[in-house]
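Query form — protein phosphatidylinositol-3,5-bisphosphate 3-phosphatase

QUESTION: What is the three-dimensional structure of this chain?
INPUT:
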Amino acid sequence: MACSVGVDGGNGCVSSRSFPVPLALFLSRSPSLSFTRAPSLPLSLSPDKDIIYICPFSGALKGKVFITNYRLYFKSADADPAVTLDVPLGAIGRVEKMGGASSRGENSYGLDITCKDMRNLRFALKQEGHSRRDIFDILFKYAFPLSHGLLLFAYLSQEKFEENGWSVYKPMEEFRRQGLPNDKWRVTFINANYELCDTYPTILVVPFKATEEDLRKVCTFRSRGRIPVLSWIHRENQAVICRCSQPLVGMSGKRNKDDERYLDLIREANGTAKLTIYDARPSVNAVANKATGGGYEGDDAYQNAELVFLDIHNIHVMRESLKKLKDIVYPNVEESHWLSSLESTHWLEHIKLVISGAIQVADKISGGNSVVVHCSDGWDRTAQLTSLAMLMLDSHYRTLRGFQVLLEKEWIGFGHKFANFPTAFEFNERLLVTILDHLFSCRFGTFLFNCERARDTNLRSKTVSLWSLVNSDLSFYQNPFYTPESNRVLYPVASMRHLELWVTYYIRWNPRIRQQQQSPVEQRYIELLALRDEYLKKLEELQLSDSSPNSSHLSNSSTPNAASPTQHITHLHTPF
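ANSWER: The structure tokens for phosphatidylinositol-3,5-bisphosphate 3-phosphatase are given below.
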């Protein structure tokens, strides 16, 4: 017997539609969450109830399970060291009853829990007396609170942090940093009440020559009213990245003179000869979308533009690929067929296409040509392309706080996820894993709901921002290899030969893999940094002693060939 309850996104926190699975490719295991860091109302079960966790790595483990309105916590009783599970209820996508009262076989009666973080958890209980009913009811109620008329946990949390993460992103400050507004681009508040587009933010940047009436006319010809607006501008050559949704061409090949003229205004803003439109979709999909009223910018209508299809598949294909990936990484990794199994998921192929597309966008901008990026509705593949391109072009977004602004602007603000470069990013892998984990945890208000309008005005006053956690302990998320560089464009190699699966995230639950995650290079580098700090401290002490009156004798007695402390420090710096 199998009784299923709940679906992905059923807790109202984040659905796969709002944040597509490839955010993982836009983005060490995150720190374990303690009860004191995320307070919740205790709803513990009867303490004498026996439960067995069917661990895929250690076998059947007896222990105790505790469930609050934030997490499921299990601790084994007979294993040394103890095996623990700490699962935010928001990460639970599905709960199934396993077996029935008449089921035979050991551990055949219990619960199957499917998580959104690549895990499947199985618990066995005694068959008599409906022993799983109370666990099932509590999980069902608090993993999917909106379905039961309950508040999301983020509204109940009383966490306090030193920094207020809600102040990280201020749209006008970010536009001013980019040098906006100017004589070619202006700020408009036409969407202040979300009347132009209910999934866009209230503050938009549009061509200076475009009137408010122009914007309203263009809105009628773009899917969901998501008109082309500026995301980023190159300070030197003034080329821009604009984002939008597909035009509503339809099967009859409709045209809209206002939309055509509007794209020409974008082109003219920096004198681009031909505006490049990057359509993230495969061309066959774009053509098929005509049947449902969508389409693409044809050459006959948009004569001053060139259209490039990037062949990135939609969210449904991505989900299926992720499902196949999960099947090969959890619970066990079959090493004898690893490469062929990974290839069959097509996951790395999708990553390659997204990175390749972002490189094309960045290259056009660097060459002084403005671009427009869209997919179907302009908030899944579009955000992947624009944010990755902006990461490559703008070193500010590669800092800890700049990256937070990028996510707030391109993903959260516009509705709606990387490759490693060891010295280019100020943040480390922990930040990426933490962000992905809290997409679903419902501990913070940062990723709740689908767009700015859907987040009620009290969200910021009633919930805590994820950036409050991050910015209160910045050193935990800092990359020791980081070397600040301005005006450097990053061009990753978009080749299957250079792409690897993100083991730290996708296979982190396997204890054998987890033990191998420590990077010897990073560990040695951290040790050398500590050694450098120790030498610098000693140098400072020597300099202080040299400046004292009693140091003159030592200074006069030193030989010309003796190496000074400064020389030693210089030599120590050489390997870095």
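ADDITIONAL NOTE: The radius of gyration is 27 Å.
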